[in-house]
Amino acid sequence: MNDTRRFRFLGILSVACFLLFASLSSQSTAKAEDETPPSILWITCEDMSPHLGCYGDHTVATPNIDRLAAEGVRYTKAFGTYGVCAPNRHTIIMGMYPVSTGAMAMRTWKRTGALHMIKDPELLAIPTYEATPPAEAHCFPEYLQAAGYYCTNNSKTDYQFDNPIAAWNESSRTAHYRNRPDPDQPFFAVFNNTTTHESGVFKQRSPQVVDPNEVPLPPFYPDTEIVRRDVARHYDNIVAMDEWVGKILKDLEKDGLLEKTIIFFYSDHGDGLPRHKRWVYDSGIHVPLIVRFPHKKEAGTVNDELVSFVDLAPTVLSLAGVDIPKHFQGQAFLGPEKVDPRDYIYACRDRMDPAPETIRAVRDSRYKYIRNYRPDLPYLGFVPYRNQQAIMQEILHMVESGDHQPNMWQFWAEKKPLEELYDTQNDPHEIHNLAADPAHFQKLAELRDAHEAWTKKTGDLGHITEDELIVHLWPPEGKQPTTKPTKFEVTEAADGKFRISLSSKTEGASIAYQLPKEKTWHLYLKPFEVESGTKLKAKAHRLGWKESEETVQSVP
Asked: What was the pLDDT predicted at 124?
């Protein structure tokens, strides 16, 4: 799709926004009248690889997540598209790869946390901008709302664009499926826990339950007191997070919803530790994924199919009986729209804070191919947030002192090979590069071809500068457009009521409206009726553009 088509303004109001969402509604596949669509609940945590009892790691007890696995399906090969949160969350909410929408860098549109206090000139020189999907693309909960779902997010967004006002019925720390107006209404709810986040290793966050001397260390870590202490802290946080999962399950049981709800559990990427988070090795992108169905359908099943984060949105729509939009780049792995399993998953690394980078990866069920487009750069760029960890300081000290242990080569190498190939079955930590081994040239060529085909298919935007990217997203001058405001059309209806129709001149804009005495905003799907004297508010927002000004309309 060219830039002109993606960013043109509609010339006439006859192509109104309510027609767009009438189209969204028409995508919903009708279910039998006597069949209630399933509610779906996501339990998500942050910065955690599969260090759980059900995945064979018994360093700490994780009884609640293990229960989910015993009562559901445990996926062994689920992967993020990035080893870091914001691009992954963009992938999930859009059902699209970040390389197609300009969401690759960490982060694009704001500086958060400790970065506010860092006066690094390279960081300050990086422009801020919003990832901008094509006009026809919407956050996937909008499609669920069009199908009658009540959608809540508690509460992290971090989608690489400003928080969309219409994506959720509620998105806050108080958002909850219990708040839906009709207790029989199906819901899609997300609960996110930050206990295992990278920052939880900076200092002791959770009660200490594991002996640092007993924690397993990957072979690319030095065996020192500081390293063991920080790894132990991470395991302590896993215990606390598991207890939180148990509380959510108890709430579902108390509400009589456990056997009416499909439950997903997953982490947003791998461990928040050095050479895990931000990297395209399995340590950074391999995550736990468990799906529990009502009445323990398929209980205790282990699924070895490849699953990518780009598949989560289409899978939820499939389970809900909603047609999958054509612009989605993932595929359903559950529900009536399920397709054949993947041959490959794809992963990327781009700029992390001020550290430039362009790395792409392809993985099949066993082998990982990595293409380093910046072989001139070391693996360890300057990432000031990460460097707050004592374990990272310990590794940096060893690198600077010349203590070059062989299995740590990816820490101390000043340059990178152009290509890497790993046998994850025999080398799960991806230390021994097989790219130059003639015995693996055929596999190398296969995965190289898969990478190049994916690059063309997705239109990978990671190969241009961010200054060029901004112009690509917001032609012709790289200035962020503002969504056109909402227009009200008020007509008389029966029984003294008035019919309200809403529209915006901006192609692809979602419209949200607010009723009197309400704090929440409603996604506009079709004309609705209100009483005389009602005062309405409305906003329009196209993803990646500035939100429109608020429009106020008083009904006669």
From this structure: 75
Q: Under CATH, to which class is 38-101+137-343 assigned?
A: alpha beta
Q: What percent of the chain has pLDDT over 70?
A: 92
CA distance 68 to 74: 9
Tokens describing residue 274: 């050095």
Amino acid at residue number 8: R
336: which 2 tokens? 């009536």
CB 494 within 8 A of CB 468: no
**CA torsion, ordered 233, 238, 240, 243, to nearest 10 deg:** -170
pLDDT band at 112 (very low <50, low <70, confident <90, very high): low
Report the distance separating Cα 170 and Cα 492, nearest Å: 31
* Separation CA 53–CA 59 (nearest Å): 8
Give the model's confidence band at 403: pLDDT under 50 very low, under 70 low, under 90 confident, else very high. Answer: confident
Q: What tokens appear for 300 in the block? A: 């205790």
Q: Among 335, 294, 300, 299, which Cα is nearest to 314's?
A: 335
- Report the distance separating Cα 369 and Cα 371, nearest Å: 7
- Which residues on adjacent β-strands are paired with residue 267? 45
Longest dimension (CA), the chain: 83
Instruction: Count the neighbouring beta carbons within 10 Å of the beta carbon of residue 442.
Output: 9
What are the φ and ψ backbone dihedral angles of 447, each rounded to 5 degrees? -75, -30
Judge whether 290 and 54 are in contact, CB under 8 Å.
Answer: yes
Task: Tell how far CA 406 is from the center of its chain.
Answer: 34
Which run of H or of E encompasses 304?
A: strand 301-308
Cα separation, 490 vs 286, in Å, equals 52
Interval 19-72: pLDDT, tens: 344 444 444 443 443 478 999 999 999 999 999 999 999 999 999 999 999 999
Q: What is the spatial distance between Cα 418 and Cα 126, in angstroms, rounded to a whole number?
A: 26
CATH architecture of 487-554: Sandwich (2.60)
C-alpha span between 384 and 390 (Å, rounded): 12
Residue 193 corresponds to which amino acid? N
**511 touches 540 (CB < 8 A):** yes
- What is the set of active-site residues? 85
Pinpoint the residues of the chain covered by CATH 3.40.720.10: 38-101+137-343
Positions of CATH 2.60.40.10 in the chain: 487-554
